[in-house]
TrEMBL record:
Chain ranges of the Ketosynthase family 3 (KS3) domain: 3-406
GO biological process terms, semicolon-separated: fatty acid biosynthetic process
PANTHER family: BETA KETOACYL-ACYL CARRIER PROTEIN SYNTHASE (PTHR11712:SF347), POLYKETIDE SYNTHASE-RELATED (PTHR11712)
Pfam families xrefs: ketoacyl-synt, Ketoacyl-synt_C
Record GO terms (molecular function): 3-oxoacyl-[acyl-carrier-protein] synthase activity
Official protein name in the record: 3-oxoacyl-[acyl-carrier-protein] synthase II
Xref: PROSITE patterns: KS3_1, KS3_2
UniProt keyword annotation of Transferase present: yes
Amino acid sequence: MVDQSVVITGRGLVTPAGIGVTENWTRLCSGESAAVPGPDLGRLGAQLQCPVPGFDADLLLGRPAARRLDRFSQLAIVAAREAVGDAGLSPDTWDGARVAVVMGCSVGGIATVTAQHVRLLDRGPEAVSPLTLPMGLGNMVAGHLAIDLRATGPNLTVSTACASGATAIGTARQMLRSGACDIAVAGGADASLDRLILSAFARMGALTKRTADPATASRPFDRDRDGFVAAEGAGVVVLEREGDARARGARVHARLAGYGASADAHHVTSPHPEGVGALAAMRAALADADAAGHDVDHVNAHGTSTKLNDLAEGRAIHALFGEEVSVTSTKGVTGHMLAAAGAAEAVYSTLSIEHRMVPPTANLEVLDPEIRVDVVASAPRAQRADMVMSTSFGFGGQNAALLVAAP
């Protein structure tokens, strides 16, 4: 029988909170927002954004390689290299045929596509780059990772909007448990700080209008929240069956104890107001782990800083856990990284286990009185967190929940 226990042995992060896991954790615990002024969209107004600070693709990947990659793939490769190295693995020594790559993305290489569309309109079809599709297609993040890591096992990209990174990790776990691979490199990446995407979000009313003070704009669960700050980033983990990891003497960061998914089947953008789909995904993750609500110490919430999401999620968390678990949203610091969010937040969950610390929800000044959960604010909270639920929800009502536990 194939070993059913799956563990996280490698972690990699490239986010607005920094490049690398250590830098991310320090920034999260500081509660310092990464939001900065973004583009002015004319009548839609000035916007905010959370870019990855100091990311030099030419330096990190080499100029020839960087020029052939859209930014979302650049971010993913750097995060994946950190995760693989952290796991003590190398493409030089592993059996690539037994290594799967499963990545989540939402908007894909949108910057490449929009730039080439401008060239098409201005200069005609012959001006369009032959690299448009290899750079712009959403599936290429997994394809480029496979080339970089020489991983010839199962290779796929999943897209469940802002739940994509969590869905990818859950899918990779299922592949390991089925015996389809021995190692899985999984996570999510998006680079959505493009005028088209920002304009679309702004037209929907999803973005914050608190542009005068970027540092306080993203405020999950706060009474005065009014929208999210768009962000870019990548989060990647290395997953292995526990028996294989222990046999090679690997450091185990956490067990990936459970995964649950669901659909609201309610509305194309708005969550079910009672959080029915979110609750179903969380219950499925608990059932998958053969665990109960009282086993969970902490919830790393999706917490986007939008009126509807935070209220629906708060209701779902209260229905399952009451006020017995601590809750945080790291999007007060990072902004909303779309597909990368769930993967990065799964890594943050493992760090809470490791450090026995819950980062604060940045900018939470007055908790929305309709959200009856124990949200950590102002400063990190020292607490034992042996089992953490990480939640992710996306447009289309697509929901995912990951349950990570102490090794």
